[in-house]
């Protein structure tokens, strides 16, 4: 199928020939009349070879390529891609009775640029990051409920804050198919209330699943501080792992309420857990020698490259506080989910923090995002989560 044409400047097809799925606006020589934001387009080289089909968008990433062929983008296309994403996760043992919370589609990592889908039991939460995906939302929803053996009955569309504001698409957060059933999902046997209606992102951070499992193994007998806890993910793994006490901190009172509800769900009336609605930096000032396992999982300090410098200072300051305060023989799980911050830059920020504290620090693990957040090998930008597990003497 040939759609309206976008023609590249001479020689600007290099990265596309290596299957990188983005066309930057600066690479474009000509846009056929009548192309509007969110339209399907065919991308052509200066010498008239068709590269593939994708969605047009106003902005620096002008086209997101969906197929490096002339395939039509229709129901069959979305059904095949979504089925493939599901099959991959099923085949690697990620979807189980005791684990029904997972990311089903991770944008470029699943060859569906601009689309994120998280599944919580019977409900799929769909987020469009590109106008084209907004227009395809009904095809996507149909593909989801048709997935055989996935048992998805409800599709909640949540793109009010993820679509470009200027596109004026007026997306309403709402169910496209089905309605509210239950919001309890299971991750590695632990239960969580997932608030996709009012919570952050799709309601839960599934990307920390493997790192939470690792934390569980280190928790026995330790005093654990879970900073930036949100729904309390790390805290329950620590409790199951035999922690002495677990303190969860988040500046959002709502997050703290969710954390408390989730504790009740898994460990009713367990006095080892306490939750505090407080600013992280303030809280850390006051914890001399109290904890010997600290988790630092702050929000993205750099949402764009322009914020990089300040973000690195932020990571250094935050980690320096933890190094200064942690008990001898303590362990720190420290993370950055800023895509704009590279693995090396993050490690350097943590290194500077360690040096400032003058303590002996060893790296035990270098962590990343889990297998349901795959990185398309042709699109290294898909790597965003970085973590270090550190032993502090
Ligand atoms: N660790 C969580 C995800 C963290 S998301 C998990 O496993 O699910 C980042 C969280 O940091 C958000 O809940 C946000 O409310 C909180 N936050 C942002 N700024 C903060 C601050 N200055 N102090 C404490 N918490 C903060």
Task: Walk me through what this model shows.
The protein folds into three domains: 4-67, PUA domain (Archaeosine Trna-guanine Transglycosylase, Chain: A, domain 4), CATH 2.30.130.10; 75-188, RNA methyltransferase domain (HRMD) like (Transcription Regulator spoIIAA); 205-392, Rossmann fold. The protein contains ten helices and 20 strands. The termini are far apart. Helix content is 27%, strand content 27%. It is globular, with a radius of gyration of 22 Å. The mean pLDDT is 96. The strands form four sheets. A seven-stranded mixed β-sheet has the order 16-15-14-17-18-20-19, with helices on both faces. It has helices spanning 14-17, 75-91, 131-135, 137-146, 209-218, 233-240, 253-266, 280-284, 308-325, 343-357, and strands at residues 4-8, 22-24, 28-31, 40-44, 50-56, 61-67, 101-106, 115-120, 123-128, 154-157, 174-177, 184-187, 190-193, 223-227, 245-250, 273-277, 293-296, 330-336, 361-367, 386-392. The longest helix is centred in the C-terminal third of the chain and has 18 residues, at 308-325. It is an alpha/beta fold. S-adenosyl-L-homocysteine (SAH) binds at residues 205, 208, 228-231, 233-234, 250-252, 255, 279-280, 297-299.
Short description:
Helices cover about 25% and strands about 25% of the residues. It contains 10 helices and 20 strands.
Question: What does the secondary structure layout of this molecule look like, with pairings?
Answer:
Layout: E1 4-8, H1 14-17, E2 22-24, E3 28-31, E4 40-44, E5 50-56, E6 61-67, H2 75-91, E7 101-106, E8 115-120, E9 123-128, H3 131-135, H4 137-146, E10 154-157, E11 174-177, E12 184-187, E13 190-193, H5 209-218, E14 223-227, H6 233-240, E15 245-250, H7 253-266, E16 273-277, H8 280-284, E17 293-296, H9 308-325, E18 330-336, H10 343-357, E19 361-367, E20 386-392
Parallel strand pairs: 1-4, 9-10, 14-15, 14-17, 15-16, 17-18
Antiparallel strand pairs: 1-3, 2-6, 4-5, 5-6, 7-8, 8-9, 10-11, 12-13, 18-20, 19-20
The structure holds S-adenosyl-L-homocysteine.
């Amino acid at each position: 199928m040939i759609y309206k044409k976008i023609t590249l400047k001479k020689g600007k097809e290099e990265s596309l020939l290596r299957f990188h799925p983005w066309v930057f606006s600066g690479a474009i020589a000509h846009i056929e009349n009548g192309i509007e934001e969110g339209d399907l387009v065919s991308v052509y080289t200066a010498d008239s070879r068709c590269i593939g089909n994708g969605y047009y968008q106003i902005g620096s990433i002008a086209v997101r390529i969906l197929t490096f062929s002339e395939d039509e983008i229709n129901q069959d296309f979305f059904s095949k891609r979504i089925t493939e994403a599901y099959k991959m996760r099923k085949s690697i043992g990620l979807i189980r009775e005791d684990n029904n919370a997972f990311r089903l589609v991770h944008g470029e990592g699943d060859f569906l640029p601009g689309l994120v889908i998280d599944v919580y039991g019977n409900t799929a939460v769909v987020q469009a990051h590109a106008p084209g995906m907004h227009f395809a939302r009904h095809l996507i929803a149909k593909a989801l409920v048709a997935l055989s053996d996935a048992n998805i009955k409800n599709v909640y569309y949540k793109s009010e804050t993820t679509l470009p504001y200027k596109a004026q698409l007026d997306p309403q957060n709402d169910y496209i198919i089905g309605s509210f059933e239950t919001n309890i999902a299971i991750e590695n046997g632990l239960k969580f209330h997932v608030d996709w209606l009012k919570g952050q992102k799709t309601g839960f951070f599934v990307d920390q699943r493997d790192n939470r499992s690792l934390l569980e193994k280190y928790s026995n007998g330790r005093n654990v501080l879970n900073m930036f806890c949100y729904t309390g993910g790390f805290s329950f793994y620590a409790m199951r792992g035999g922690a002495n006490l677990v303190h969860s901190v988040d500046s959002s009172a709502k997050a703290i309420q969710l954390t408390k509800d989730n504790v009740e769900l898994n460990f009713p009336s367990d006095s080892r857990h306490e939750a505090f609605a407080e600013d992280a930096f303030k809280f850390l000032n006051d914890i001399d020698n109290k904890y010997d396992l600290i988790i630092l999982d702050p929000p993205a300090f750099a949402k764009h490259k322009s914020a990089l410098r300040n973000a690195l200072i932020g990571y250094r300051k935050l980690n320096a506080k933890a190094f200064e305060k942690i008990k001898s023989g303590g362990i720190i799980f420290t993370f950055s989910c800023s895509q704009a911050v590279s693995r090396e830059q993050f490690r350097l920020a943590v290194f500077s923090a360690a040096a400032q504290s003058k303590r002996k620090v060893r790296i035990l693990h270098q962590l990343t995002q889990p297998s349901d957040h795959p990185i398309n090998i042709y699109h290294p930008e898909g790597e965003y989560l970085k973590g270090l597990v550190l032993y502090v003497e």
